Structure formats: structure tokens, C-alpha cells
Amino acid sequence: MADELVLLNVWPSPFGMRVRIALAEKGIHGYVTKEQDLVNKGALLLEMNPVHKLVPVLIHNGRPVCESLLIVQYIDEVWRNGYPLLPSDPSRRAKARFWADYIDKKMYGPGRQVWLATGEAQAAAKGELIGCLKVLEAELGDKPYFGGDSFGFVDVALIPFYRWFSVYEHFGNFSTVAECPKLVSWAHRCTTERDCFQVSS
Which of 25, 59, 78, 147 has its CB surrounded by the most CB atoms within 10 Å? Predict the structure, then answer.
């Protein structure tokens, strides 16, 4: 019996894009996407994610998996075709999870405040966001991807935010290329060389 996959999502969500990228990396395209209204939340979303009531939710054969990074790890564990998104070495796997968690905690909040806030609050958020990007660029170093030569878990966690860089730049009045050129080169590499990004966009 074929796996039944349903993704509850909102198209612009960088968190939902993580799931779409991971599925594409594993060659999984035969799933149903159900767009959700987060203002008037539907019964299916409330049933499948009764605690946080947020997207994305991946429903696999009727059983829900919530939270984007947990879903990406689940996909990597269940579908072992292709190369793994997480490394097999426990130390490297823990490091990848650390950086993905860092992205979750440091990117979204300040990025959102850059385009929603004004004055001192916006300036503080801008400084925090640029600082976060610089830390990530330092971790990337001269590697093609965060894990080395292969596109992996940390890349999946961060690359969906790239489509928001122009928004951050516009409202924050700064240049990501000027601040973090290596990180922008990494983003171009992901978006032009990875088929998964084309599928998920």
C-alpha cells in the first residue's frame, strides 16, 4: 500500500518550505498540499496540531508530525533513499541540530521586526538580524554547504529565509551582499544548483 502524505501548509511560510524541500530531496512528489487559513483555522489543522495549531503539519498515513525541523528529521529517517540530510556521525548530527535550532531562535523574530517595527525597535532588530547572519556566515566558512560538500539539514533549515532577504534589506536599509557575501553566494548556490528548491518554490 502506498504511503498517504498530506501537508498542511501556508505557501509563504519558510517553515513549510523546509518540508517541501526535504520531500523533494528525497524524491517524494506524490503528496497532497492543503493550504490553511491561519485566521479561521479549520477542523483538520486543529485536530492534527491541537497544541500549537500552526503549520506545517505532515500527515503520514493518518498520523501527524508537527514542527518543521522535526518533520524534516522524520522525513530523513523514514525515507532513506538518496543521501541523508543529517550526518550519521552523532557529533556532527548534534552540531547540525544545534545550528538549525539557532536559526529557529535567531532568524524569524528579528527578521519579522525589521519589516514590522519602526524606530529604535527596528534598529535593534536589524542589528540582531545582521549579527545572526554574520554568525551563520562564520560557521559556513569556505564550505559549499553547511555540512561540507553535501546539501543537508542546516541548509534546509536556513535557505527558505533567503526569499525574505530582499524584504529585510528594503525595510532595514542594508545590503546582505555587503554584510555577508559568502552567505549570499551559498544561497545562490542552493537556489541554482538544487532541484529541490525549484520544486518547492
Answer: 25
